[in-house]
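Quick question about two entries, pasted in order.
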Amino acid sequence: MLSSTQKENEVMNVFIMHVGHPGNVDIDSTVTQHRTFDEVLSKLPPDAPKREYFDSNPELKAAFPDGRFNCLGVPDNAEPSFARTAIGNVVLMIPFWGEILSGD
């Protein structure tokens, strides 16, 4: 099924994102903790390009009417990977490669 932003001839990419080995990163918290628009806005500098988006974008506000959403922070060294993703892609979060490679 296509998302509302995908066209029929568009390719959907699948990405595997490494989110840290157990003990380094709490994957449950990373994936399930809710954030709020106010929390994001409080962390953005006043001149941040995305400030207006989080503050007043009607589509974003309609998608999360209670103002809560899941959000993953991206460290600087992971930014190139996220820059390759687009709306409609699938991103699988894994705690470490051993689980994928061993089948555990």
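Here is the second entry:
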Amino acid sequence: MNTFLIVFALFILFIFIWDIYLIRSQGKKASISANVIRISHKYPSIVFVFAFSLGFVMGHLFWNMDDSEIFNIKCEEVKVD
């Protein structure tokens, strides 16, 4: 398994456990989601910049590439008579 996937899965698990801890100890108002919603209402420009940046990064990661660049496959033309 790829090291990045392991680290990413552990990060997501940590965030999930941390959010549960915050909700149980301080209530829903302290959760990560509540903080994100509060910040987005107070600073809508941050949401715009984050969404634009995320779209920019995703566009660069998943832009259409030639299959031969990714899989090292060389296609040959087939002539049909």
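Reply: Residues 3-64 form one domain. The longest helix spans residues 3-26. Hope that helps.
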